[in-house]
Design a protein that fits this description.
It is built from eleven helices and six strands. It has a six-stranded parallel beta sheet with strand order 2-1-3-4-5-6, sandwiched between helices. By secondary structure, the protein is of the alpha/beta class.
Length: about 230
């Protein structure tokens, strides 16, 4: 028997994780080696549990103490630098075109919407495919990439500008020096990335830039408002 494909999952909803186990636990080709709820657990988990395919949600909290979304646009390229053979499959509720494009550009092997039950029912085969170098996209994600040449506000932001804004969203109290250490670049480079992003977004400070980038779907969007019972 060939070795099973090892899968680690990052999602903060236990019902979603239970659904993955239901689909994959009996698979002869795939095994779930670890499930985690917070972005800051990824590095240690991958060191402890060798992984072939990583399933990521987008809006997961950075840590148990930090409810801001983890910096996915920083984490994906960082992980691929350390684990070049790792396949990363994003499974998300967000269908924003700019976010999908940015995630694919930093090296993800696919973007599947959580409402895409047809693909999720076939998740075992999707995992096998991406582990062998394939790419999988939900139809709306694929259509978004096909339309990626259309001009949109904010679409001219470079990958590193999106990465630094993603980090700012996750760690809003971080200083320029702290952001620079996380990105392994100089303080002046961080300042230049932020200032050029402000200009392109038409804003004047970090808070406004994060808000505008979320509105445009360039980084993790605001979670949807859940109606209160009886309304």
């Amino acid at each position: 028997m060939p070795e099973k494909i090892r899968v680690t999952i990052l999602d903060d909803h236990q019902t979603i994780l239970d659904g993955y186990h239901l689909r994959l636990d009996r698979s002869p080709r795939v095994e779930i080696t670890a499930t985690i709820h917070y972005g800051d657990q990824l590095e240690a988990t991958l060191k402890k549990y060798p992984t072939d395919v990583l399933l990521l949600d987008v809006g997961v909290p950075a840590s148990a103490e930090n409810p801001n979304p983890y910096p996915i646009l920083h984490i994906i390229p960082s992980l691929l630098q350390v684990y070049p053979d790792l396949a990363i499959l994003v499974i998300s509720m967000y269908a924003e075109r700019n976010l999908i494009r940015a995630i694919m550009e930093v090296g993800a092997s696919g973007y599947i919407l959580k409402e895409d039950q047809a693909i999720l029912q076939d998740l075992e085969n999707v995992i096998v495919s991406v582990s062998n170098g394939g790419i999988h996209l939900s139809r709306p994600a694929k259509e978004a990439l096909l339309r990626s040449g259309e001009a949109e506000p904010g679409s001219v932001l470079a990958r590193r500008q999106l990465e630094v804004l993603s980090l700012c969203l996750s760690y809003p109290e971080s200083s320029t020096a702290e952001l620079a250490r996380k990105m392994s670049i100089s303080n002046s480079t961080v300042r230049n990335l932020l200032s050029s992003a402000y200009i392109k977004l038409g804003v004047h400070n970090r808070i406004a830039a994060m808000s505008k980038a979320r509105q445009l779907g360039l980084i993790s969007p605001e979670p949807p408002t859940i109606p209160t019972a009886g309304r």
